[in-house]
UniProtKB/TrEMBL annotation, chain A:
One matching Pfam family: DeoC
Protein name listed in UniProt: Deoxyribose-phosphate aldolase
Gene3D superfamilies xrefs: Aldolase class I
Residues that span the membrane, as ranges: none
Highest taxon of the lineage: Bacteria
Annotated source species: Streptomyces anulatus
SMART domains for the chain: DeoC (SM01133)
Keywords for this protein: Lyase, Schiff base
Reaction(s) the record says it catalyses: 2-deoxy-D-ribose 5-phosphate = D-glyceraldehyde 3-phosphate + acetaldehyde
Amino acid sequence: MPTTAPAFSDATASDSALRRFLFGLPGVDAVGLEARAASLGTRSIKTTAKAYAIDLAISMIDLTTLEGADTPGKVRALAAKAVNPDPTDRTTPRTAAVCVYPDMAATAAAALAGSGVKVASVATAFPAGRAALDVKLADVRDAVAAGADEIDMVIDRGAFLSGRFLKVYEEILAVKAECGAARLKVIFETGELSTYDNIRRASWIGMLAGADFIKTSTGKVATNATPANTLLMLEAVRDFRAQTGVQIGVKPAGGIRTTKDAVKFLVLVNETAGEDWLDPHWFRFGASSLLNDLLMQRQKLSTGRYSGPDYVTVD
Amino acid sequence: MASAFEYAPAPESRSVVDIAPSYGLFIDGEFTEAAEGKVFKTVSPSSEEVLSEVARAGAADVDRAVKAARKAFEKWSALPGSERAKYLFRIARIIQERSRELAVLETLDNGKPIKETRDADLPLVAAHFFYYAGWADKLDHAGYGANPRPLGVAGQVIPWNFPLLMLAWKIAPALATGNTVVLKPAETTPLSALFFADICRQAGLPKGVVNILTGYGDAGEALVSHPDVDKVAFTGSTAVGKAIARSVAGTDKKVTLELGGKGANIVFDDAPIDQAVEGIVTGIFFNQGQVCCAGSRLLVQESVQDEVLDALKRRLSTLRLGDPLDKNTDIGAINSSEQLARITSLVETGEAEGAERWSAPCELPSSGYWFAPTLFTNVTQAHTVARDEIFGPVLSVLSFRTPDEAVAKANNSQYGLSAGIWTEKGSRILAVANKLRAGVVWANTFNKFDPTSPFGGYKESGYGREGGRHGLEAYLDV
């Protein structure tokens, strides 16, 4: 049974203690946060640095399909792409994981067996999370049993926004207990939490509850990962490690489509959390169309010309 | 600092700017040699490379320039405001069109990073001309009654820290109100003013409305004490400002002085800490701290002092110092060897007086003038580094216990130019801001500039306001 980091055991002793702790965190000045994110976005990443960043970004992708129309065939195609992203260049790194709904986890696991690419499954009544705890836990058990290496859960935003922080915390604890060896990513749906103060508080709830990753969003709402909310979460994991020694990963998801965007996020990682997080074990991109743009840019770097969308695979 | 993610060099191209081997003075619409034929060299502070040789103005040149400005004044001041506005709008647009070239030029001559000239200096320069262009035909509505009159010839002396921006702050309101100008840029950064002279020609500005005299302090002295100058505007050191005030005493010259500062950046324990750290960095390391309104004194509440200092040191360790033309450079070169010597000497004094020095671990280039971002802890009000303006990348950290103590310490300075307040509590911002004797008070930000906002100081930081509607008054006979 995972427990709260000892340094903060008092913080989660009761609903009021947790509220006091969360409201004692430093506030976030929205203008300043966005200005800092924008300023890091002006870094100019060229030549060797760009080549490094592109390969790193590819290796950090959770290649994702979360559609009602998903089929075993679609999932197998995605798995093949994750293992071998660019059929014309075998030096291209693999993606970190393939991310699917729980009923597709077994298909993904079979297709990825032995490849080193992880199976990530969303769970807990993703994306809304509006189901009874029993149902959410069953969803997690199902995904783990089907071979998921990683579980992407959603928090109860309703509970969070109505101030029931301990409920959010305890639900994460319960999900973590069902994960076994699987790593747990906790999705806050930052677009629904709305304020940066809320995102900082949610990050701390997730970290206190034993999340292996904190993740911005489901990709199913209007505002998903942004440089500013990801910067804020990187500050949270940086501070958490400084205080507890425990390192936690970060996963921005949704809306990151271009190499330029991905490189900006890697700059945020590099200059906020630091190079310890420049590793697929600690940073991920939840994305689908991003991969092809990275591949086109990679081909451009190696050949000196743009190849075009017909030279990368459509899945 | 070897990192896995090593940013490859990303230099901005120098080819966008064509620097001539020599330049003359710009008088009455023409480039001309100095009467005495003297010249001086301007070097790039990041490499000590000689960029160009420019004419060195003397008293005779000042006289010629003032006469040209006087002659031009009659027609220029008689133009309808809407006509003067057209010239200013045209200048603003040309600045925007040539902003890449001017940014590279300014970075070469001044040593500041291209990131700053590109994203701060040049956009502000253009904005300033656009803003005052808008006022030119609306002076009747500026609050000084109908048809306020210009003063005449303005003698303007500007510093080297924001060469083109300070030129814009001086020239835009002067021209909008119908004055003509003779401007002397600093001897270490003459080039952007000379390029501006070219822009005036490109804009078809009538001859003599703007005159640029490159030179040293003697030329500045001759300019401000010239009997036919009606208005003196100076930005620079407090020592020179005092000398100017003495020289114009007893004359009918109107004077504005924008002098030194020792800005207090006050961080309360309920501040947004991560953003406050960014604000501290912007406050004192923007333009290598060579900013009159720099937040050079950090006043941090004792209960968060350790947390803030740890975060600040961590952040300073990520600053990238080096080639100012590299787009990823955060900290450029110090403007001159004289300034570097002054910073070095004040830092030595700080150490000798027992303050504890910490400098960011960065490698300094072998040529050029460089100083690593530095902070002093264990500083009290009695330390020289807490009182004297260093004008370099050096932060003095002091602590306080209560808001009253913060206000008392912030105001306990011979200067009164800028201050910053960091707190999430709105009522505290208002209460503290009202008690601070500083011309500019920033809340939860620092070193933010806008042409609509007046700027100026209390006490030894000078008098008069530049920018905004207030900035018109300095150039009107009201």
